[in-house]
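ok so I'm stuck.
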Amino acid sequence: MTNPTPLHNRHRTVLPDWIALYYKHPIELTHGEGRHVWDADGNRYLDFFGGILTTMTAHALPEVTKAVSEQAGRIIHSSTLYLNRPMIELAERVAALSGIPDARVFFTTSGTEANDTALLLATTYRRSNQILAMRNSYHGRSFSTVSITGNRGWSPTSLSPLQTYYVQGAVRTRGPLAHLDDAAFTAAAVADLEDVLGQARGGVAALIAEPIQGVGGFTSPPDGLYGAFREVLDRHGILWISDEVQTGWGRTGEHFWGWQAHAQNGPPDILTFAKGIGNGMSIGGVVARAEVMNCLDSNSISTFGGSPVTMAAGVANLAYLLEHDLQGNARRVGGLLLERLRGIAATVPAVREVRGRGLMAGLELTKPGTDEADPDAAAAVLEAAREGGLLLGKGGGYNTSVLRIAPPLSLTVAEAEEGAEILEQALRSI
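replied:
not stuck anymore, here's the structure
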């Protein structure tokens, strides 16, 4: 392997210390194709993390690269001050897919900015700075989104423009409710929500929740929990924001959006998205019913949100996703992969749990025979998997002991089996 120190030293000289790098010897990825990427030394890896769930369809997807190239040859930038055909086309498609009636769409450049915008809308609409958020959550790295992140590993300051109340229920297999069956778990979480609202001062603006927590380790509540929350929220006029930055676009296989597993009382008031829709291009956004979206009474634009180039990429990427039924592929191949991973886990004492849906799987590692998280083991497996030619992610609350698996949704059965074999060897190496 080429000595990575010179580039790593340059990185450390000009970039912040708090930018995390994977691996003891960080790698430089130079190109990709399909579900594979290559590093600067020519090593090929099967990519099971997709740039943090962002390369949704495939690396170097011809349809997307062609759309980007053609649009860049016409005009790269204009801002939202001018009519923008690709932005309108993508907004029309996202609004129709969102499930939100009379939907309006605002594009941003990231999931953080999308959630920041959702908080602006909710607090303005409700004239309140009080927000309900879930324990173990992650919603971004801006000042406002850090303040509603219920995960200390990603929340560097307690200063906040918002008053945040944290609610139980997002983590099914840990915590004081874990011993309950699904119905009792949901009832207890609803009771906790009612109790928290009893402590709030006046009207709360919104509940923000990830249907499946990403950074938190791909944890989720029983189906229907957020729908049950919705009954309580509606009685108080509180908005529901579904953070779909990681769960959207069919990744879970069973649903196009994560909120649809909790749909018994209708869609959310606000939906945020990012990551996969751009397939690597910087696209985020907010969908809300018109009454909420149009509540701002001051000027607002976006210089880079809705860029003609990124919108062209999004239109092409979404078309490919739908035309090739990648949601169905996530359900089929993801189901096989999860079954294979559970079979492996049954013979590896360090694996406490395999969880997830579709092509969104998490393996929680603990010290064998205990429920004590083992971040060192997770780090060791990450390294061993890379040595074997597989890239994974990490997460898991404040202890980063969960291996996160989220490959492009075009993953084949053969690639799923190859990845599972490499991961099994890595797990056994510890």
